[in-house]
From TrEMBL:
It comes from Candidatus Tidjanibacter faecipullorum. It is an enzyme of class 4 (lyase). This is Chorismate synthase. InterPro entries: Chorismate_synth, Chorismate_synth_AroC_sf, Chorismate_synthase_CS. GO terms for molecular function: chorismate synthase activity; FMN binding. The gene is aroC.
Length: 327
């Protein structure tokens, strides 16, 4: 479904090449100060055309707040945000109803929805939908006044030296190929006690949102998979003081599903953009066999470039939801 959350509930709607994409946010406390311009810095971080390896599709991404706001404050009613889609090349997707792109949702969506799904730009499965998630995350941050976020791209295609990122992206563009990437998100100042045991742990709620981002294939907290290669004596976070600060942070700021007062630290793995300019042999339903497909349109050489702020938004939304449950 397209709705998530408990105390703070989100519903995404729209398609990549429809007239709008948007989000309804229910549960924002009445009286929260809010102006559309406050969302623009995070939205700008997500926009195409800002990086050498990002799509040239450039939307204005000016949010229209059409409900839940009066005189600069939330009313307690559901907040609805709209983003107009204008820079469209829908003809680039005419063949995709029958000639399915590798590693895309084209075939799976056609089966699930009986062929009535919108294939243009990936429809509801497109990364375009994350514009609404970023806007919701920016609003969630207003409910976390003591929390700060630090987010960075740590790897592109296995390369971890940021000085080489532009060179690598330029080479990918030249070849018509793409690469995956890893993003690190750190949340500082999260109150101790946020989170619930078992099914609504900080990890569970955050991971649910993070894995909803198109292209995300892995999430790890703290030391993550590296912890599986260690002994307990090497991995344990020894407590340094009565406030719960630890000498190390291998658990990523979470114990028993609950924030322990240290930085919450996670990493998100994005797969390579599946839309590439190189010809690929893939199934064509009209022919009943595989045939070469060259994907047109405008695409990212590395979706992690613009995915970083989306991952940050997902963590903010998870923490805001869990924090409202404690209020």
């Amino acid at each position: 479904m397209n709705t998530i959350g408990t105390a703070l509930r989100l519903t995404l709607f729209g398609e990549s090449h429809g007239p709008y994409v948007g989000v309804v946010i229910d549960g924002i406390p009445a009286g929260t100060p809010l102006a559309a311009k406050e969302l623009l810095p995070d939205l700008a971080r997500r926009q195409g055309g800002r990086h050498a390896g990002s799509t040239p599709r450039a939307e204005q991404d000016c949010p229209q707040i059409v409900s839940g706001l009066l005189n600069g404050h939330t009313t307690g009613a559901p907040l609805t945000l709209l983003f107009a889609n204008g820079n469209l090349h829908s003809q680039d997707y005419d063949t995709l109803r029958h000639h399915y792109r590798p590693s895309h949702a084209d075939l799976a969506a056609a089966v699930k929805y009986g062929g009535y799904n919108d294939p243009r730009g990936g429809g509801m499965f497109s990364g375009r939908m994350t514009v609404a998630l970023v806007a919701a995350g920016a609003i969630a941050k207003k409910l976390l006044p003591d929390v700060s976020f630090a987010t960075r791209l740590t790897e592109i295609g296995g390369e971890s030296d940021p000085a080489r990122f532009d060179e690598l992206l330029a080479e990918l563009r030249r070849r018509g190929d793409s690469a995956g990437g890893i993003v690190e998100v750190v949340a500082r100042g999260v109150a101790r006690g946020v989170g619930e045991p078992f099914f609504d742990s900080v990890e569970s709620v955050a991971a649910h949102l993070l894995f909803s981002i198109p292209g995300v294939k892995g999430v790890e907290f703290g030391a993550g998979f590296e912890a599986a290669r260690r002994t307990g004596s090497a991995n344990n976070d020894r407590i340094a003081d009565g406030s719960g600060h630890t000498f190390t942070n291998n658990d990523g700021g979470i114990n028993g599903g609950i924030a322990n007062g240290n930085d919450i630290r996670l990493r998100v793995a994005f797969k390579p953009t599946p839309s590439i300019a190189l010809p690929q042999e893939t199934f064509d339903a009209r022919r009943g066999t595989t045939a070469p497909l060259t994907v047109g349109g405008r695409h990212d050489a590395c979706i992690a470039l613009r995915g970083a702020v989306v991952a940050e938004a997902a963590l903010a939304l998870a923490l805001a939801d869990l924090s409202l449950r404690r209020a």
